[in-house]
Amino acid sequence: MKPLLTTSGLSRRFGGLRAVDDVDFTLMPGEIRGIIGPNGAGKTTFVSLLCGRILPSTGTVMFDGADITGLPAFRRVRRGIAYTFQITSVFAKLSAYDNVALPVQRRLSDSRSTASIRSGVMGALERTGLADRASMPAGELAYGHQRLLEVAMGLALKPRLLILDEPTQGLSDGEIENFIDLVRDIARDATVLIIEHNMPVVMQLAGRITVFDAGRILAEGTPHEIRADLRVQDAYLGTQHG
Ligand SMILES: Nc1ncnc2c1ncn2[C@@H]1O[C@H](COP(=O)(O)OP(=O)(O)OP(=O)(O)O)[C@@H](O)[C@H]1O
């Protein structure tokens, strides 16, 4: 099986800071991959390089066999990379429905029938548990629900790769349970890359976990391997051992 996405020597500097430092990374189709690491480790910068929000200082990004390193974000979206970043794409004054209608219209650019737009929007809102809030202005949704709305907007694109940056922040325990089911459902026909600080969530969901520290990959493995890794415990999990 060929990788869906690879990076080689991927780096991004901000002034003298190496936020992402020479990262070689491989993601296989169908994976749910977790990304963890301490604050400032470079996780958000790394996935921003994958989706084209920022460009690398050096290195390459390959997606589905093609070099996408220099492509702008909207062209990566067209190739099937969708991402959600801490409510940066939600329009507060538009309803939840209208927010999701934007990416649905983009996907259905050939056949814009009202019925197909409606079914695309409501499908994404139902999957994320937001259907009964469809007419609420997005800015009036609870914080966690705005995060889910971003996921709905990503899903509406029917992506091949969905990148989620801390999607469970602000969700209640019950909502997190639903979210775990949702991600498993999404992973039946998409690859998922998820930055997540909530360890039980990432341990339950991810097939493999990549640990970032100071811009580099510190460790990679199954949840079991990562939990047992002493370097990870030192850098991040804060577990006492000795
Ligand atoms: N636009 C920017 N300009 C300057 N420095 C930046 C910029 N974006 C990120 N950084 C710095 O790069 C480093 C990595 O940040 P990044 O947000 O990628 O880490 P992170 O692992 O996602 O952290 P967190 O878990 O806190 O979200 C940090 O030191 C951060 O301050």
Automatic annotation (TrEMBL):
InterPro entries attached to this UniProt entry: AAA+_ATPase (IPR003593), ABC_AA/LPS_Transport (IPR051120), ABC_transporter-like_ATP-bd (IPR003439), BCA_ABC_TP_C (IPR032823), P-loop_NTPase (IPR027417)
PANTHER family membership: CONSERVED COMPONENT OF ABC TRANSPORTER FOR NATURAL AMINO ACIDS, CONSERVED COMPONENT OF ABC TRANSPORTER FOR NATURAL AMINO ACIDS-RELATED
Claim: Nucleotide-binding is one of the keywords in the record: yes
One Gene Ontology term, aspect cellular component: plasma membrane
Gene3D superfamilies according to UniProt: P-loop containing nucleotide triphosphate hydrolases
Protein name listed in UniProt: ABC transporter ATP-binding protein
GO molecular function: ATP binding; ATP hydrolysis activity
Listed CDD domains: ABC_Mj1267_LivG_branched (cd03219)
Pfam families cross-referenced by the UniProt entry: ABC_tran (PF00005), BCA_ABC_TP_C (PF12399)
ABC transporter domain ranges (all copies): 5-239
Alphabetic keyword roster: ATP-binding, Nucleotide-binding, Transport
Keyword ATP-binding: yes
